[in-house]
Amino acid sequence: ATAVTRRTRSGSVHGPDQVMSLDQAMRAHTIDAARTLHREDLVGSITAGKLADFTELAADPWGVDPQQLADKATVTGTWLAGERVDLDRFLGAVGAVDGAPHAHLTTTPTPGCC
Questions:
Q1: Does some domain include residue 27?
Q2: Which of 3, 7, 8, 97 suits 114 as a labelling partner, its CA being 20 to 30 A distant?
Q3: What are 30-70's pLDDT values in tens digits?
Q4: Residue 57 in 3-state DSSP?
Q5: Residue 100: inside a domain, yes or no?
Q6: Interval 16-30: pLDDT, tens
Q7: Looking at the domain assignment, is residue 33 inside a domain?
Q8: What is the average per-residue pLDDT within 93-113?
Q9: Contacts for 55 with CB less than 8 Å, ≥ 6 apart
Q10: Secondary structure, 3-state, 29-55
Q11: How many CA atoms lie within 13 A of 10 on its CB side?
Q12: Does residue 88 belong to any structural domain of this protein?
């Protein structure tokens, strides 16, 4: 949503001259990202023979006002290798990880930014 509107959750607009169309934003997050990782033969598009990694959205992004994308086209499911990820189980496992050894790697937000 931010790539299309350049508006953050707080309502600030950053780089309005860098607005993308929805088609451009979807390509940037799918096949273009896969190409950057040299994995376009495995992921990045729904094509026979690929891994079937994709997200399920609450609404068709092309049917939603761009200003409401973040609120209306929310992620309702994630699929990896053609299997739905149990998000509650995944988040439980992530929550069980002890982050203390890596606490020194966190950053502090810049005041007044974003």
A1: yes
A2: 97
A3: 999 999 999 999 999 999 999 989 999 999 999 999 989 98
A4: strand
A5: no
A6: 899 999 999 999 999
A7: yes
A8: 78
A9: 75, 77, 78, 79
A10: HCHHHHHHCCCCCCCCCCCCCCCCCEE
A11: 6
A12: yes
